[in-house]
Design a protein that fits this description.
Blueprint lengths: L1 H28 L4 H4 L1 H24 L1 H21 L3 H14 L3 H10 L8 H9 L1 H17 L2 H4 L2 H12 L12 E3 L11 E3 L2
């Protein structure tokens, strides 16, 4: 379960880094002027921000498992279609879909890791928060190597693949919770609280 949570968190970081490192370059290769090319990353971060704002209410209503699966589907379908039929507006919309889809993943993985039975409080959270950074470290060289061998369009398939991984592994997350126990997506700092984890 801990390994699955690490992969879910890494999927979120992979998608975020893809927008940060490659969105502008890819949009430029499609003919977008510099001012427009910047909107790939802006769309991803903006949609992620909106998802974080709405995340608590959506998770409380549907459960983190369902939200993660829906988010993975949004990432896979949104970016997959954008890469299958690449246009400047389509790619910007694809990055926006990716940002919205991963907006709750890292907080969810951290919260669930901190609640894993058999581990000391904070151990699972520490493992996930450290290992997920491998996504930020590995994504640029992996996508770059694929782009050198084929094309950046193929390299960016890592984004929809990350969404598929989330769909497959989301069963380790809890379904809808009842009572006062809840996960908090917005506000505070990156740490877990045993009563209402506030992860940002």
């Amino acid at each position: 379960m801990l390994a699955a949570l690490v992969i879910i968190a890494m999927a979120g970081s992979l998608v975020e880094d893809a927008g940060n490192s490659w969105a502008t370059l890819y949009l430029t290769s499609l003919g977008a002027p510099s001012a427009v090319a910047a909107f790939g990353f802006i769309a991803l971060v903006g949609a992620q921000f909106v998802g974080r704002l709405l995340g608590d209410r959506v998770v409380d209503r549907f459960g983190q498992r369902a939200v993660a699966r829906a988010g993975g589907l949004v990432v896979a379908a949104g970016m997959g279609v954008a890469l299958a039929f690449p246009t400047v507006p389509g790619i910007i919309a694809g990055f926006a879909a990716a940002g919205l889809g991963v907006s709750t993943l890292v907080p969810a993985a951290m919260y669930e890791a901190d609640e894993l039975p058999g581990l000391r409080h904070g151990t699972g959270l520490t493992v996930v928060s450290w290992l997920m950074r491998l996504g930020f470290l590995l994504s640029p060289p992996v996508v770059g190597a694929i782009a050198d061998a084929t094309s950046l369009r193929v390299g960016l398939l890592i984004v929809p693949l990350a969404g598929i991984a989330v769909i497959l592994l989301a069963s380790v997350l809890h379904p809808r919770r009842t009572g006062s126990t809840s996960m908090r997506i917005s506000g505070g700092s990156e740490h877990a609280d045993p009563t209402a984890s506030r992860i940002h």
